[in-house]
TrEMBL record:
Protein name: Zinc-binding dehydrogenase
Annotated ranges, domain Alcohol dehydrogenase-like C-terminal: 188-255
InterPro entries (UniProt xref): ADH-like_C (IPR013149), ADH-like_N (IPR013154), ADH_Zn_CS (IPR002328), GroES-like_sf (IPR011032), NAD(P)-bd_dom_sf (IPR036291)
Keyword Repeat applies: no
Gene3D superfamilies: Medium-chain alcohol dehydrogenases, catalytic domain, NAD(P)-binding Rossmann-like Domain
Any one Pfam family match given in the protein's UniProt record, by short name: ADH_N
Amino acid sequence: MKAVTWQGTRKASVETVPDPTIQRPNDAIIEVTSTAICGSDIHLFEVLGPFMTPGDIVGHEPMGRVVEAGPDSNLRPDDRVVVPFQIACGDCFFCAKGLQTQCETTQVRDQGSGAPLFGYSQLYGSVPGAQAQYLRVPHADYGPIKVSDELPDHRYLFLSDVLPTAWQAVAYAHRSPGDSVAVLGLGPIGQFAARIAQHQGLTVYAIDPVPERREMAARQGILVHDNTDASLTAIREATQGRGPDAVIDAVGMEAHGDAQSAFAKFAQRTVQYLPDKLGQSVMGKAGMDRLAALYTGIDLVRRGGTLSLSGVYGGQASPLPMLSLFDKQIQITMGQANVKRWVDDLLPLVEDPRDPLGVDDFVTHRLPLDRAPEAYEMFQKKADGCIKVVLEPQPVR
């Protein structure tokens, strides 16, 4: 089969690799019909290289049809399914609490990490990823989300990651209708976090420096601002000088904009050129994130408010302004999205003919799998108005 592989810093290639096979009774093999590039995939090519091996198959946002089902998988050939990005058992202590990302059955204990993720480095189990023609799905008796045949792929695809991540970001903001929230970053997660917050009756202010991203959000009725001090002042003035009740940071570890972020960017790039074991040690003990977005959120949120982090962070030595956090009495919530926890809330919305979350106005580029390297470069550079890329692995029939 064809698959997108990691070949080094900022280098993806499409290679021919062995087809996956059933290894356990609760496995399934799916033919991938759509698979998306996630913003966190870019981290593999920019920051997390020491935890990658040339030839690793990447990607974690797939859907498709079952072509082979293990006897304990609860699936049948031709079932149409969306596959969550994490692999969880559904039965353990944490899964029962809706914390599938912490699954005790599947935790990557040798790395001190939670549940494994498809296509996401040694840190999360080195599981072959989903930007491929076929995918082995472990724990298929629990993970896959069965969907109907009536709607096109893009209506369901984002249940794999983007929609649950955005929903959790809003849920973790702990707000009620009439409250206000600022969303930092209008990439894929920020777009849907803003729409979900608005759908739930919040007043939403969204900040992004890229005009095309602001234009997409504005089409959904979101109040958009560019990334300037004047914008922050305007948001404070609109919230009686206090700042919004919550801030959602949908940017994460590769933010731009201040001296600390510039230094952290230099450190992140430098570690790419260290031998893998040394690079892993440095990242695990002294890794730093670019924190411009996080610092903005801390500054902007009102006293006693909530900072909800959905953008990925990975630094163990990132400096935090503890005085400001303590003095402002800010609550911080964060974590990988627990996909299955939120599916029952989201599925009726993606199937609603009125499309209340604007899923039909989200995908900016659809490309065949063979053009994945071009798509990665375009997404990373935010070129050609690129906000969300969907790859189509199967040849046109």
